[in-house]
Amino acid sequence: MTDSGPALKLRLFGLSFLMLFVELALIRWTGANIVYLSYFLELRAAGQLSGIGLGFLRARSRLNLFPWAGVALAALVLFVLLVPR
Fold first, then answer.
1. Most C-beta atoms within 10 A of its C-beta, which of 2, 29, 67, 74?
2. What is the pLDDT of residues 11-60, one digit of tens each?
3. Taking the mean position of all CA atoms in its chain, how far away is CA 53?
């Protein structure tokens, strides 16, 4: 059974908000923690928007990578925290 009506719209709104919030937080947080990235705001934004675009293009793929999103985000956070400043 598929979602329909208000539940689907609410889920779409929530996921879109979460995606944009995480994107903005990552752009600001990586620049604050890695000094060399603070000069390349457009490069970080373009990379993250490209990742979101690739995610949209892969939406109907048989291989579901959504369960790995948390692992990838945790790996990025660990990488940023372990990179010498």
1. 29
2. 889 988 988 898 888 888 888 888 777 777 788 878 888 888 888 888 88
3. 10
Check residue 34 and report its DSSP letter.
-
Task: Name the nearest CA neighbour of 15 among 71, 69, 78, 64.
Answer: 69
Could you tell me the end-to-end alpha-carbon distance of the chain, in angstroms, rounded to an integer?
50
Q: Where does the pLDDT of residue 3 fall: very low under 50, low under 70, confident under 90, or very high at 90 and above? A: low
The four Cα atoms 19, 42, 74, 8 give a dihedral, to 10 degrees, of 10
Q: Report residue 71's pLDDT band, with 50, 70 and 90 as the boundaries.
A: very high
Closest listed residue to residue 49, CA positions, set 24, 29, 28: 24
Query: How far, in Å, CA of 18 to CA of 35, rounded?
Result: 26
Q: Which two structure tokens, joined as six digits, stand for 59?
A: 């939406």
